[in-house]
Amino acid sequence: MAVTTTAPPPVRVWPFVRLKLRLTVNGLRGRPVRIVLFILGVIMAGVFAIGGYATFAIPGVLDSPRAAAMLSTLGGASLMLGWLFLPLIFFGVDESLDPARFALLPLRRRTLVVGLFAAALAGLPALSTLAATAGMVDTASRLGGLAAAGAQLAGIIVGLFLCVAISRAVTSAFATALRSRRSRDMAGILLAVFAALIGPLQLAALAGAQRADWDTVAALADVIGWTPLGAPYSLGTDVAAGRAWAVPLKLLIVLGTLVVLLRWWHTTLENAMLGTAAEGARRQTSPDRTPVDLLLFRAWPRTRFGALVAREIRYWWRETRRRAALITFSMAGLFLPVSLTLSGGTPGAMTMFVGALAAVALANQFGFDGSAYAANVVAGVPGRVEVQSRATAHAVYVLPVLALVAVVVGALAAFPARIPSTFGLLVAAYGVGIGLVLPVSVRAAYALPDSTNPFALSSGGGPAKGLLAFGVLFGAIIATAPLQIVAWALGDVWLWIGLPAGIAYGAAAYLIGSSVAGDVLDKRTPELLAAITPNR
C-alpha cells in the first residue's frame, strides 16, 4: 500500500500583517492621547526618512564616489547597529503580535516566524528605514546608472530584512534568557552601562571626525563593506566603481546571515511562547513579621506616605527597567559635565540639562505598575500623596548622584568654591523637571505590554517614550533659563547664594507641579488606570 504524504500548507503572511494593522487601529479608538502620540510618531518617522534620504543622496549630487562609498557603508552599518541595540536599551520592540498569544493555536513555528517577520516589516521603523536608505539608490543611479541603482535597491531591501531579523532574534533570545530575576538584574545593569556609553562614544566619534584621516576611514569602510553590517549597503557603489563581481559575494554573506538569524529566532520563539520558567523556592520569612514590617525600613514612619515611599524605593532598585534608567542617568550625568569641564568649557548649561534629565525617568511612572496600580485606586490613595511619594522615592537615588556630579565638576575645574552653587543649579533643574514631568505622567501615561519579552512596547510606545522625554527636557531647560541668566549676571555673588536659591527654585517648581498632578490624578484616576492597563 502506497504511503502518501501531504505537503505542508503554504505560509501566508497577509493575515499576520492585517492582524497587526487591525490591533494598531483598535488600540487608537477612543484614546485621543494615543492618537496624538501615534501621529507624532508618524511625523518623527517622516522626518527621519526625509533626513536620511537627503543625507545619503548628497554624495550623488556632489558626484563624489569616495564619499558615497564611505557614507553608504558606514551609515548603513550604523542603522544596523541601531536596530540591534536601540530596542534593547531605549525603545523596545512593538509586540502588538505577542508570540505568547499564539501558543494555543495549531501553527508551525516556521509559519509564525515568517508571519511575525512580515508584520514587523509593516511597522513605522521599517518603513522609515527603507525610505531613508532609498537615498543610496539615488546616489548609485547618479554615479553608476541603472545597473548600480538596481543593485543598491536590492541591497537596501535585504538590508532592511537583516535589520528586522537581527532585532527580533536578539530580543527574543534575551527574553528567553532573562527568566530568572538574577539574570534579568545582570542584563539590566549591563545594558544600562552600554546605554550610558552611547553618548561618550558619539562625542569621541565627533572628536575623531574633526581630526580624521580620510584614507583610514575609507579603508575602514571597505572592511566593513565585507561584513553583514555594511555589505548590503555597498552594492551600488561597488557596481559604480566597476566591482560588479563583489555583488553576488556580498549578497551571499547577507543572505547567509539572514538565514542564521531567522533560524536563531526560530529556536528561541517556542520558549518565548511558553512564558516564564519556573522559579526556585521562595525565601522563608519570619512568621512574627507582618507585611508592613517587611515593606518598611527600620525607624520608617508607619504612615500611608511612608509605606508608598518605601515601596517605590524598593521598586526602583528591584525592577529591571527602573534600575536601568537610574544607572543610565548616573553614568550620563557624570560623563557629560565632566567631559565638558575637561575640554575647557563652562558646564553651566550642561548641568541644567543633567538636572532635567534626571526627571525623565518619571515620565511614564504609572506605566511601570500597569494593572497593579488598581490596588492604590481601591485603597483610595489621594493624588498628591501618590505623586509626592513617587517623587520622593526617586529623589532618594537622584540627589546623591547630583551631589557627586557637583563635587566632581568642581574638583576637575580646580574650583571647589563652585561646588555648592553647581549643586544648587542641579537641584533647581531637577525640581523644575519633576514639576513638569509629574502632570505629564498623569495626562500622557501609556501601557507597557503584558508580555514575556521584557523589551516589548505597545504599538506607538517607542515614539511616545521619546516624545515625552524630549518634551520634559525642553520644557525644563526653558524654565530654568532665567536662573542660569541670574547666575551668569551675579558672577561671584552666585557662589554664595546659588545653593539656597537653587533649592528654593526647584522646591517651588516641584510643589506647584505635584499639586497640579495630584489634583489631575484625583479627577482622572479611572482614565489613568485604563490607559496603563495592557490590552489583552
Q: In terms of structural class, how would the helical and strand content be classed?
A: mainly alpha
Strands, total number: 2
The dominant shape is globular
Sheet of most strands: 2 strands, parallel
Written account of the structure:
The protein is an all-alpha fold. The protein has helices at 14-28, 32-61, 65-89, 109-121, 124-177, 181-210, 214-224, 235-240, 246-274, 291-295, 304-318, 320-342, 348-359, 365-369, 374-379, 383-412, 419-443, 461-490, 494-532; strands at 93-94, 456-457. The two termini are 49 Å apart. Mean pLDDT is 76; it is low at 276-294 and 452-456.
Note the main attributes of this structure.
536 residues, mainly alpha, two-stranded parallel sheet
